[in-house]
Design brief:
The complex is a heterodimer of chains A (251) and B (329).
Chain A lengths: L2 E2 L2 E4 L4 E5 L9 H7 L6 H5 L6 E2 L1 H16 L22 E7 L2 E7 L5 H8 L18 E4 L2 E4 L12 E3 L12 H8 L9 H11 L8 H7 L10 H11 L10
Parallel strand pairs in A: 5-9
Antiparallel strand pairs in A: 1-4, 2-3, 5-6, 7-8, 7-9
Helix pairs in contact in A: 5-8
Chain B lengths: L4 E4 L3 H7 L5 E4 L5 H6 L7 E4 L7 H4 L1 E3 L5 E4 L4 H6 L1 H6 L1 H8 L4 H6 L2 H5 L25 H4 L22 H8 L2 E6 L2 E6 H4 L18 E7 L8 E6 L10 E10 L2 E10 L6 E2 L1 H7 L6 H11 L11 H18 L1
Parallel strand pairs in B: 1-3, 2-3
Antiparallel strand pairs in B: 4-5, 5-8, 6-7, 6-8, 9-10, 10-11, 11-12
Helix pairs in contact in B: 6-10, 12-13, 13-14
Classes of the chains: A alpha+beta (251), B alpha+beta (329).
Chain lengths: 251, 329
């Protein structure tokens, strides 16, 4: 018996199943996990019809096929049930060699892959976080040639020939970077999602010509948003590395 | 995001030639373009990456001009220009406009040329589900009937009320800077006041560049009283936000009397807004509160507020008055 197609909602990080056509469908956690299709594969999601009638079996099968295709790094064309035309592809993936944390990483990338997605999804360096993906939150901050930049706002192909440092490359072996240590000592985080961006930003701020006050640190770090509100700890961590006392008290 | 063809320009001529294709865009810092490509607002089929041209220091650094002015290379980054001592000391209004814009990370990416080419932050322009004459000519203006809190009160038309978002451009307009552009027909100088276009009946036309033309530099003229200049920006939060109102001012003050003045406003105009009306109200007058109020009234005399942004008229006046008070004290 066919049931109306389930509804996919597009969240900030992933499309999620909001509603299913069948009232007696009770998916396991594992099934739901498999059905969550990442936002970056929006073209694959586009390939799923959003209206019409699918059987529950068809829907689950398609979603799992998609999840599997993604897991194996394959594109949407692999999905047998895709009904919409494929997006035109003018540029096949080509080898893009990124120099990350002292190593050359040859990756097969389309030009439209951002540096952030290249690091996380192709190089396996997931320490750099995707928050807003629009240059507004700072979670994706990395260093390019020693300067802090947003990896979501540049294409990986543009960064060939540059020295890229991510949070994974900041420590010297087992010895933490002073900013990393300071974030621990001064309790500069709560949930930790923004923390790699905060630390990468701070590790550059300490070399930039800012004034010595807490207000200067707040201004310098204003491109890094912390939803937990760990700012007092962050300010005192940055100030401690710069040799200044902070009047901020971690909450 | 649509797929596109990527080309790394090997020279200025190569860049110009590559960008003459329809639907080609230059990319430098990428901080506007990548954002808008993700939103499907920008859909270039060819991207011409000009970052490798930064090897030519004429294009990427700050240099002294023979006439005493300063040349800002089009590929110079906002942070480097902001902290250059010649800019900071000679043209504080430029340095401040840069440091009050964006975030530290974005300032390390965004360039001079890209900054003045920024697209509006109008939320209807950024939302492809909504009509927008700037994005889809003839589709209508959602802001005119929608939520207009962040929109312009000066230079609006019945087709568009979107503000120009650049802070730097406001400082440049006050200083009478020149944009140096290069195309297949050679180099030309575009006064910054003529660079950005009013929306009028064609809000999709935003600037004076021709297809394939590229900005190579922005020239700041020699201006003795630019040392007494200031950029004041008012926004919804203390940092990292676009202006609700801003003022760029430079004043030649002698014995308490204003001999010459430059005034431009941001956050309230459809283009970076030079106010010669305010300047006329200042010149020859004593630098005091009454003079500043008269200048602010003159600057906003032609304002046409929308349903939600009448506050901007008052805010812009107060911003200008405070900027003039600070710069003359």
């Amino acid at each position: 018996m066919p049931t109306p197609l389930s509804t996919l909602g597009i969240g900030a990080e992933a499309p999620v199943i909001l509603m299913t056509g069948s009232s007696h469908w009770d998916p396991t956690r594992d099934e739901v996990a498999k059905l969550i299709i990442r936002w970056r594969y929006v073209s694959e999601v586009d390939a799923l019809p959003t209206t019409g009638t699918w059987s529950r079996r068809e829907f689950i099968q398609a979603a799992i096929t998609f999840a599997a295709a993604i897991a194996f790094g394959r594109a949407a064309h692999a999905a047998p049930n895709a009904r919409a035309p494929e997006p035109p592809s003018m540029t096949a993936p080509a080898t893009v060699t990124l120099h990350v944390n002292g190593r050359d990483l040859p990756l097969q990338l389309e030009p439209r892959v951002t540096l952030l997605d290249a690091l996380r999804n192709y190089a396996g360096l997931t320490g750099t976080k995707k928050g807003c993906d629009h240059g507004q939150c700072g979670a994706c901050t990395v260093h390019v040639d020693g300067r802090r930049v947003l990896s979501c706002m540049t294409f990986a192909v543009m960064q060939q020939g540059h020295d890229i440092t991510t949070i994974e490359g900041l420590a010297n072996g087992d010895a933490l970077h002073p900013v990393q240590q300071a974030f621990i000592t001064h309790d500069g985080f709560q949930c930790g999602y923004c923390t790699s961006g905060q630390i990468m930003s701070a590790a550059a701020v300490i070399k930039e010509p800012w004034g010595s006050n807490d207000s200067d640190v707040r201004e310098a770090m204003s491109g890094n948003i912390c939803r937990c509100g760990a700012y007092p700890g962050i300010v005192s961590a940055v100030q401690s590395v710069r040799g200044n006392n902070s009047s901020s008290t971690p909450g | 995001m649509i797929d596109f063809d990527y080309h790394r320009a090997t020279s200025l001529d190569d860049a110009i030639q590559s960008a003459e294709k329809t639907s080609a865009k230059f990319i430098a810092g990428g901080t506007t373009l990548v954002d808008l490509m993700k939103l499907d607002v920008e859909r270039p089929e060819h991207l011409v990456d000009i970052n490798s041209l930064a090897k030519d220091s004429n294009l990427s650094s700050v240099s002294q001009l023979p006439n005493g002015g300063l040349r800002l290379g089009a590929l110079a980054h906002m942070s480097d220009v902001a902290w250059d001592p010649r800019v900071r000391d000679g043209y504080p209004v430029v340095s401040q406009s840069l440091l009050l814009a964006a975030s530290g990370q974005l300032r390390n990416m965004a360039t001079m040329g890209g900054n003045i080419m920024q697209r509006t932050r109008c939320w209807y322009f950024r939302d492809t589900a909504m009509p927008c004459n700037k994005r889809e000519p003839g589709s209508g203006c959602s802001a005119l009937i929608g939520i207009s809190r962040i929109h312009a009160v000066l230079g609006t038309s019945d087709k568009c009320i979107a503000t120009h978002p650049s802070d730097l451009a406001v400082a440049l307009v006050a200083l009478d800077a020149n944009v140096i552009a290069r195309g297949s027909a050679g180099e030309r100088v575009i006064p910054i006041r003529d660079f950005h276009l009013l929306p009028e009946q064609h809000p999709e036309r935003e600037h004076a560049l021709k297809p394939g033309e590229i900005i190579t530099a922005i020239d700041l003229p020699a201006l003795s009283f630019a040392t007494r200049s200031l950029y004041l920006k008012v926004r919804d939060r203390a940092s990292f936000a676009f202006a609700l109102a801003s003022a760029a001012v430079a004043v030649d003050l002698q014995a308490g009397v204003i001999r010459a003045a430059r005034v431009a406003l941001g956050g309230v105009g459809t283009k970076p807004w030079r106010s010669t009306e305010a300047e006329r109200a200042l010149v020859g007058r004593k630098a005091n509160a009454a003079t500043f109020r008269a200048a602010a009234d003159a600057a906003l005399a032609g304002a046409k507020p929308q349903k939600d942004n009448a506050f901007k008229v008052i805010l812009a006046k107060r911003t200008l008055e405070r900027a003039l008070t600070e710069v003359t004290s």
